[in-house]
Amino acid sequence: MRVLALTAQLRLQKADVTASIPVLSDRVVNVASVPQRSPLRYPGGKTWLTPEIRRYLESLAFRPKVFVEPFAGGASASLTAVMDDYVDEAVLCERDPDVCNLWQCIIDNTEDFAHRVENFVPTRENIDVVFADTGTARIDAAFRTLVRNRVSRGGIMAKGASVMKRGENGNGISSRWYARTLASRIRAIGRYAENLHFVLGDGLSLMDVYRDNESAVFFIDPPYTAAGKRAGRRLYEYNEIDHEDLFDRVAQVRGAFLMTYDESPEIVEMAQQRGFRLARVAMKNTHHTVMYELLITSHELKL
Ligand SMILES: C[S@@+](CC[C@H](N)C(=O)[O-])C[C@H]1O[C@@H](n2cnc3c(N)ncnc32)[C@H](O)[C@@H]1O
Questions:
Q1: Cα–Cα distance for residue pair 123/129, rounded to 1 Å
Q2: By the number of CB atoms within 10 A of the CB, which of 163, 180, 219, 288 ranks highest?
Q3: Is the pLDDT of residue 101 over 90?
Q4: Alpha-carbon gap, residue 18 to 267, rounded angstroms
Q5: Which of 78, 95, 149 should be mutated for ligand 1, with most atoms under 8 A from CB?
Q6: Are the C-beta atoms of residues 52 and 299 closer than 8 Å to each other?
Q7: Pocket-forming residues, ligand 1, beta carbon under 6 Å
Q8: Does 119 have pLDDT greater than 60?
Q9: Higher model confidence: residue 171 or residue 80?
């Protein structure tokens, strides 16, 4: 009985820890009001955080030279940083070879890739042909990855993810393949090919490369697998992260950083132990429930 009471008390104290963190914004961002730059519908994507990322970059006392994104995914933060001229260049790391290859093809073969996207008619049969293709040419593999991302439920590309049958509002799969819009996003990204660098590998190692660079700013959005959370495991093929190790490396960064996590007492504790700053920002999850995302930063976020 006493053990139960103590456990309940502890849980209450932990919940209090997150409740005392300042709320940066209680208004859920309307994603339609933010420029969509990535051709990917990325699970856990941070397009909705764009206004806060901009505010953070504007609040820095220096203009960062390089934007470092160790967990690239749909890359929306780096695309904003470079295309809105907050930084000269972005370096991104992605562990999933299919996702990284897609980005590298967009950068290296922009026009061929955009042309292919523009001319693809997403019928069930054509999609099956793309999936059945075992061609190893990098551009074929990249195209397969993009099609898989666009037509799978929730954009999930991890093994076992299912393909949408009815599309949005029953409008068929074509409701997820806006050929001209996607091609124009790809061409827009291609115009910044010199400023965007995608590396295949472990984001933690990339952090070490830029750790001592005072004019680097890091945007860190790892798979959320800390404290037994399962979302990150279901969403991504590569999801094993040693979160304590990540936090230790972040503590050594000499430039600025903005890190995002699902709100949880364990993460708050890891951040507080290292003297990081914390804030919360409202967001809607996939079930349209309003909840808070945790922002962990080197520099104070203005309320
Ligand atoms: C939360 S998602 C990033 C979403 C991204 N911020 C966006 O807006 O689309 C995390 C990404 O990290 C990748 N990943 C997992 N482990 C990694 C590692 N050790 N190094 C680099 N990338 C990794 C996953 O494949 C996934 O694409």
A1: 10
A2: 219
A3: yes
A4: 10
A5: 95
A6: no
A7: 42, 44-46, 70-71, 73-74, 76-77, 93-96, 99, 202-203, 221-223, 236, 238-239, 241
A8: yes
A9: 80
Choosing from 158, 176, 193, the residue where a domain stops is 193
Q: Tens of pLDDT along 184-207?
A: 999 999 999 999 999 999 999 999
Side-chain-facing half-sphere of 255: CA atoms under 13 Å: 23
Residue 186 included in any domain: yes
Burial of 178 (0-12, 13-18, 19+ CB in 10 A): middle
Can you give the residue range of the structural domain that contains 167? 98-193
| CATH code at position 48 | 3.40.50.150
If we measure between CA atoms, which residue out of 299, 273, 231 comes closest to residue 52?
299
pLDDT of the residue at 260? 96
Cα(6) to ligand 1 centroid in Å equals: 37
Count of CB atoms situated within 10 Å of the CB of 141? 17
Together in a domain, 214 and 297: yes
Residue 28 located in a structural domain: yes
Q: Among 82-91, 245-254, 288-297, name the one with the lowest average pLDDT.
A: 288-297
Other residues' Cβ atoms within 10 Å of the Cβ of residue 91: 20
Residue 278 lies in a domain: yes
Residue 25's pLDDT band (cuts 50, 70, 90): confident
Q: Residues with Cβ < 8 Å from 69, sequence gap 6 or more? A: 75, 77, 78, 90, 91, 92, 93, 218, 219, 220, 221
What per-residue confidence (pLDDT) applies to 300? 78
Tokens of 120: 């693809």
11: confidence class by pLDDT, cuts 50, 70, 90 = low
Q: How many domains does the chain have?
A: 2
Q: What integer pLDDT is reported at residue 12 of this predicted model?
A: 47
